[in-house]
């Protein structure tokens, strides 16, 4: 097993947010040390990691020094320039590999990839100008959703096209020449599956989480999801198929719609831990962050049995001010991210409420 990194090895994590923080916290009990690379001073991840490099993603010298100081590199968010990750991959193993990141950064590449893997998606058209948007709307019909291909998150960079929408105004509002028009899915539920795949090709999908958004931001994830067993199986099988086709080593989060007819459609993928997987920290035999550490270091993956039915609730903005009440609640597990300033819409922490029978 020469490919397995021994305890004491250093995991380099690109990005300093809460996902990096919780990955570093999960690495410690297995004996690994973490080195964060982030442009941000005093980031949530650097507060709990052994070392941090604060530098830009374009700083070649800092990137080379970082690569030399670590044994494997992973990343905790997907909007890192692919060039940066490609450069690093010549100096140290990067898991997941850079091509996985490239697919997840572009909504059309992502949907093409999902379709090529045999997964369903909403109907979609790549749109690069107003004329194309008009054609795409005639083909797909209204309602539809127009989204920027890159850098959209939490509903930002998207506009709903209804019967009343003026297409020229909608196009101008996106301020891009690279967009996708998607048919509006009348979904029954939004769900997600996080799948891990190890270097030996073993893939294991976590149970399906049922997600509820408020103002386009994830509010709660509930496990088990209230979906039929066949849908649960189909969603997990879809996530495994995507991970296999990507030859992923690491984690892939797959957001999906379950339609009113029970069909599972892929909406988005992210090659990293995911907010909808935070329930695993307290409700699952292995948490998603430990699973990422296991996958990238070559350890065997851990089991994914549900230990406790769990509802994860995000603490957004000043909701985190409730920390003392939450800490006093039985079976509520509080996770705070160490962010100094509670801006509206900012994820400050989360709470996992486990059901102990
Ligand atoms: P996204 O940024 O793609 O995750 O979209 C944010 C949210 O907008 C999703 O969680 C859905 O609630 C909604 N949404 C996105 N795309 C569609 C679609 N094609 N049909 C219906 N709702 C959508």
Task: Walk me through the topology.
Blueprint: E1 10-14, H1 18-27, E2 33-38, E3 51-54, H2 60-69, E4 72-75, H3 82-89, H4 98-104, H5 107-116, E5 124-127, H6 130-140, E6 144-148, E7 158-161, H7 167-174, E8 179-183, E9 187-197, E10 203-205, E11 209-214, E12 217-223, H8 229-246, E13 250-259, E14 264-270, H9 280-283, H10 288-297, E15 310-316, H11 323-328, E16 332-336, E17 347-354
Parallel strand pairs: 1-2, 1-4, 2-3
Antiparallel strand pairs: 5-8, 6-7, 6-8, 9-10, 9-11, 9-13, 11-12, 12-15, 13-14, 15-17, 16-17
Helix pairs in contact: 1-10, 3-4
The chain binds adenosine monophosphate.
Residues 122, 145, 152, 155, 182, 184-185, 190, 213, 216, 255, 267-268 line the site of adenosine monophosphate.
């Amino acid at each position: 097993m020469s490919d397995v990194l021994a305890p004491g090895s250093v995991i380099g994590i690109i990005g300093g947010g809460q996902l990096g923080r919780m990955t570093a916290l999960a690495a410690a009990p297995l004996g690994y040390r973490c080195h964060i690379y982030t442009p941000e001073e005093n980031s949530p991840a650097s507060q709990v990691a052994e070392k941090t490099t604060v530098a830009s993603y374009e700083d070649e010298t800092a990137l080379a020094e970082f690569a030399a100081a670590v044994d494997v590199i992973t990343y905790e968010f997907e909007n890192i320039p692919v060039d940066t990750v490609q450069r690093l991959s010549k100096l140290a193993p990067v898991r997941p590999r850079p091509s996985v990141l490239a697919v997840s950064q572009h909504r059309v590449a992502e949907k093409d990839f999902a379709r090529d893997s045999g997964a369903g998606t909403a109907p979609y058209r790549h749109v690069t100008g107003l004329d194309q948007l008009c054609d795409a709307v005639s083909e797909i019909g209204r309602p539809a959703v127009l989204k920027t291909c890159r850098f959209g998150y939490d509903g930002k960079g998207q506009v709903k096209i209804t019967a009343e929408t003026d297409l020229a105004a909608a196009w101008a509002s996106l301020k891009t020449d690279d967009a996708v028009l998607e048919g509006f899915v009348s979904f029954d539920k939004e769900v997600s599956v996080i799948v891990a795949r190890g270097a030996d090709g073993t893939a294991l999908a976590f149970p399906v989480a049922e997600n509820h958004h408020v103002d386009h931001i994830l509010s709660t994830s509930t496990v088990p999801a209230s979906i039929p067993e066949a849908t649960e199986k189909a969603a997990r099988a879809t996530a495994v198929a995507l991970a296999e086709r990507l030859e992923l080593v690491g984690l892939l989060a797959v957001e999906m719609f379950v339609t009113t007819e029970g069909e599972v459609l892929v909406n988005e993928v992210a090659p990293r831990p995911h907010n909808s997987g935070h329930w695993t920290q307290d409700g699952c035999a292995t948490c998603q962050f430990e699973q990422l550490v296991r996958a990238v270091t070559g350890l065997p993956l851990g089991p994914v049995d549900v230990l406790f039915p769990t509802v994860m609730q995000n603490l957004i903005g000043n909701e985190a001010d409730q920390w003392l009440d939450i800490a006093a609640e039985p079976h509520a597990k509080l996770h705070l991210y160490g962010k100094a300033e509670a801006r509206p819409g900012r994820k400050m922490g989360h709470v996992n409420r486990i059901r102990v029978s």
